[in-house]
Amino acid sequence: GESVGLHLPTLSVQEGDNSIINCAYSNSASDYFIWYKQESGKGPQFIIDIRSNMDKRQGQRVTVLLNKTVKHLSLQIAATQPGDSAVYFCAEMAGANSKLTFGKGITLSVRP
Amino acid sequence: NAGVMQNPRHLVRRRGQEARLRCSPMKGHSHVYWYRQLPEEGLKFMVYLQKENIIDESGMPKERFSAEFPKEGPSILRIQQVVRGDSAAYFCASSPPEGARETQYFGPGTRLLVL
Question: How far is B7 from chain A (nearest CA, A)?
Answer without folding.
Answer: 13
